[in-house]
Amino acid sequence: MSVTNIISSTPSIENGYCSFELGSFSFHRDEYFAHISWVVNGRGMSHTISADVFLRALMRDVAWGFFYGRVNFDNVFGTTNHYGQVDMFAGSYNGDLKAKNLDLLETFDTPLIMATFKTMLDDWTNESFDPFAAPDETTQGWIGKKSGSNLAAINRERQVCQRQPGLPGDVALRVDEDGYPQNRAFADVSEDEPEVYIEPGFESEVGAFNLFAFLSRSNVTWNPSITSICKESLFCPTTEEYILPIAHGNDRCEWFFQMSDQIDWKVENDETGQPRAKVVMKAGDIAAMPADCRHTGYSPKRSMLLVWENANPELPKLYADGKLPVNPIQF
Ligand code: PHB
Ligand code: FE
């Protein structure tokens, strides 16, 4: 089902924020909270999320184009990507709401839900709040009445590599005084570059770079960037601090390589949100997240994580049809 959205562009007299509607869902925010409402079987339902939590999740959903599979903002509200269309749901993957038929799921064409989410993100993000930053690196500006906007933060363009980082002609690798500063937590990370001895004639094709130095200058958290592609295999390193703002229910297996410090993962049943496991990952640990779980990470200090994704577009159907085991390794 595709429904048109009505965006009420009149800001609230009380707090300055606009309200939004998409399909049968409506959204409004006040000084502290985002409120989501829906009607199911004639019964009005509502759900409240702290505005900072909502905006951090909304930022990821927008920036990642709805990501792989499911993005749970919390244990009630979220989206599922069908690559061209997106489900928006409340309660559909919450065991209790689902059992009582109080959930609602509607499907939208991607451009429509994307436009609605972008407009809401823009309107609800105040001037001094950066939803990509670690809490210690932004202000509490999400609290209170509407005050300005932070377009620079929410429209951050990824710096796109022209070539493999480190090779002549690449512009993205800025480990120099013109690039981003080293993060406070990574001030001790060496910026030595690897020594590479290249067979004559291959100088413009062989290269290496210091990934730790590169990541030590990341100015965002929980935002994997693709640094290498080999067929469908994507290496997506990222720096993490505090809580992954979504609980991700992937539509395929994914691997985590903890490159520094520690992240604790809370793993749940993706259909119901019931607890499944806690995975404590210390520097050097590798884990695979099965294709039928949802996971959220907790990083007490800024840490470096490599997310390894398989971008093969056939995978969601193979898992959904039970043709691939949900765990990549059978012990
Ligand atoms: C994930 O859901 O697997 C994920 C997303 C963003 C990150 C790390 C992990 O920064
Ligand atoms: Fe994930």
List the helices and strands and how they pair.
Elements: E1 7-8, E2 19-22, E3 25-29, E4 33-40, E5 43-50, H1 51-63, E6 70-72, E7 77-81, E8 85-90, H2 95-99, E9 104-109, H3 110-124, H4 151-154, H5 211-216, E10 228-230, E11 233-243, E12 247-249, E13 254-258, E14 262-269, E15 275-282, E16 286-289, E17 293-310, H6 315-320
Antiparallel strand pairs: 1-2, 2-3, 3-4, 4-5, 6-7, 6-12, 7-8, 8-9, 10-11, 11-17, 12-17, 13-16, 13-17, 14-15, 14-17
Helix pairs in contact: 1-3
This protein binds P-hydroxybenzoic acid and fe (iii) ion.
Polypeptide structure, described:
The chain has 331 residues and is of the alpha+beta class. The chain folds into two domains: 3-153, no CATH class; 159-320, Sandwich (Jelly Rolls), CATH 2.60.120.10. It has six helices and 17 strands. The protein has helices at residues 51-63, 95-99, 110-124, 151-154, 211-216, 315-320, and strands spanning 7-8, 19-22, 25-29, 33-40, 43-50, 70-72, 77-81, 85-90, 104-109, 228-230, 233-243, 247-249, 254-258, 262-269, 275-282, 286-289, 293-310. Strands 6, 7, 8, 9, 10, 11, 12, 13, 14, 15, 16 and 17 form a twelve-stranded antiparallel β-sheet that branches. The chain has a five-stranded antiparallel β-sheet with strand order 1-2-3-4-5. α1 crosses α3. The protein starts with 6 loop residues before the first strand and ends in an 11-residue tail after the last helix. 33% of the residues are buried. The structure holds P-hydroxybenzoic acid and fe (iii) ion.
